[in-house]
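Job type: complex structure
Entries:
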Amino acid sequence: MWRNLKSIINSQYTILVFRLILGGIFIYASLDKIAHPEQFARIVYNYKILPHSLINIFAIVMPWVELICGIFVIGGIFVESSSAILSLLLIAFVIGLSVNFLRGLDINCGCFSTDPQGKKEGAILLIRDFVLLAIGLQIFFSNSQFATLTSVFNKLFTRPRN
Amino acid sequence: MDDGTAVMEFMRGIEKPKHMNRNFSSMFFKATGIIIFAFILALSYNSLSDRGISLKGAWSNKILSDSLIVPYSYQKGDPQAITLSEAMMEFQSSNTIFLDARLEFDYRQGHIKGAVNLPYEEFDEFYPKVAPKIAKDKIIVAYCDGTECESSLLLARVLREEGYQYLKVFFGGWAEWEKAGLPIEKGEGNSK
């Protein structure tokens, strides 16, 4: 059974599906943040982790990092570096959520609350991020070149050796 | 095959030796390039977009006086912000209603004595039930858990649109009130 699971997870088709899922989710998530930077900055503020002077610059740049890496991961350009960046972002999100989960901060309003409903929502977000992180790391470690633009370019532009 | 070997094989499958041969400096270089590219695109878009925001936001609390600190989003023209001692004076008045903007769960754990619960986040659900308890000719003092919390201000702004005129916001909120040892109650108790 382990062997089957291993071959499924490492299959180039699975990695392609993982790339589509991870890239798709990050592109989707980034577009709304790019369109509404003020609201996103408020969310960053509500996490109460970054120093005030860095909140806006983070809210401006981070969605573009997500968008570019999402496009690259799907298209197969610098997949390793892009998936590494997305994985690091997910680790940062997990840390941010966990810190607030532990200190009882409701990130919807940036206020301290003991409401278990808020904790439940936080837990769902954490699980989602962990699943995405596992997908991101698997893309990173698999190093699959299947259906990537990089491999297409390599085929087109690399001269055959004599 | 025993399970121990199977697990080892599974792990080996994930961590293939080819990873060790990777060119990490090239990967790091590309990653840095991606980040720089993102920075350039983001800053350009932000400066061209109508919705662009300033690079450095004003997120710090504003200090209006020694005893009055308000959140960054408090603006001129917003309902009057009041201090703890002013809130205590209002508490004595029979013409004042305290409104707790926190979630119902937090309200039940403890709130200012006699306060009515109207969670800002669930305004649409709560307002029809709560509206009969808060007459428009009364003075309404909104509060949430403390200065860092904006729900009281946001609630007061929404109520102003509903036609309430005598609105005040006690930013010190639950934290300051409880710390001062002032009258509190738990559970539903909606009567003063």
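Summary: Chain A touches chain B through 52 residues (CB under 8 Å). The longest strand of chain A covers residues 105-106.
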